Request: fold
Amino acid sequence: MAKRSVVPFGPQHPVLPEPIHLDLVLEDETVVDVVPSIGFIHRGLEGLVSKKDYKEYLYIAERTCGICSFGHGNGYSLAIEKVMGVEVPDRAKYLRVVWAEMNRIHSHLLWAGLMADAFGFENLFYQCWRIREKILDMVELTTGGRLINSVDTIGGVLRDINEDQAKLILNNIRDIETELKAIRDTFLEDYSVQTRTRGVGVLTKQQAHDLGCCGPLARASGINYDMRVLGYDAYGMLDFEPIIGTDGDNYSRCKCRLDEAFQSIDLIRQALTKMPAGEIAVPVKGNPDGESFIRIEQPRGEAVYHVEASGDKFLDRFRVRTPTFANLAGMCETMKGAQYADIPLLVVTIDPCISCTER
Amino acid sequence: MADEKNILTVIDKEQLLESVMVMKTRGLRLSQACASYKDGKYNLSYSFAEDDNYRYETLRVVIDKDDMIPSISGFYPYADFYENEMKELFGVRIQMIKNDYHNKLYRIAVETPFLPKDEKEED
Reply:
């Protein structure tokens, strides 16, 4: 019988600059069980609803995550707007899509770089992050911030994208699309990359469903589930189909995310082309009174925003269930049966965001 | 564009396990579970998603501060984190959590649960 041993992974590990701890139960080099521990960076953000009024709190909600910050602000705004019955102007809905999709591209490129770094392909890592910088430059140009944007507000958005900026973005994303093709080809066709991704960390469709996975992790296993299909913001007025994989392995997850980056480029193009003229926000008066659940598709998957209010300027409760929180069980499942050397890759493969998870 | 159906059903705590079992049998995914606290009562929300048609169903259980509630981790093993969070941060008394972190899910120095000072339990 193989010798059993327990090897700790994290909370500080070179592959992931975020703290999560795993107790890996090994039989020789094979992982047979995983016990996760989180909780190293809980910030108590949800509790701050008792100290910041519901309009100020938007800026706290955005800071749930430094990568998908726009989405968190957007999800929070949508939840409040639903409670208060606020109808956001169409132009603001399209602008929200543009920034949300820019967030998605830079998040996926950040992930692609980390993935490349995890399997030792330094040059690919540099290239992914070089392209990501171009996206961040466009985010900075249009919002004034690179990661924390603060352009969302209850009732719309605070900044517009003018015609010159729109032209610049359309030109830039055309160039980025070309560069991204080379990245995609390397990830999907390079022999040595495939040896680290094909057939590694398989999560079947049934497992992904049973473990409550969401986002690219679930879609790579064949689950057709993308919150943008609900049509929030301007997604209902744009053409797109969720990108679905079949194999549920590292390769399929890479393919899913890289294809989604192209899809985001297409959505930005559509949004900027179809965006109507008009107001970008409506004034919002009074305090929320009621409850709502809102789901949006963040780069890492379904995020759930729950608001409870009782007519006061302070909310009774704000809750965000982030995608990584839902995907931790799936991540642990991909590790069972894997080789110890593949664990860093399998941690990165779900694109974990621990600060999001712990809030 | 999917037609979002967002349904909230208030149930008694005695109905929780049976209702969750129905969700499990119907093949719904546990999307989130959370607690809120006001005026001596907990609002517990368990949300389930139907992937095929984007239907979203939330079960709401309202319990008194000292009431016990059974864990749903027997049906949804990955409910562990949600339930440990409810227990640690809000002080919800949950029985038989499959992986009980005993109020150490979040490694924070601040005393939990985060309830108004006069309503915290005395150890």
Observations:
- The radius of gyration of chain A is 20 Å.
- Strands of chain A lie at 4-9, 21-27, 30-37, 152-153, 156-157, 289-298, 301-310, 317-321.
- The interface with chain B takes residues 37-40, 42, 44, 47, 209, 211-212, 223-225, 229-231, 235-236, 291, 293, 295, 302, 304, 306, 308, 316-317, 319, 321, 325-326, 328-329, 358 of chain A (CB under 8 Å).
- Chain A has twelve helices and eight strands.
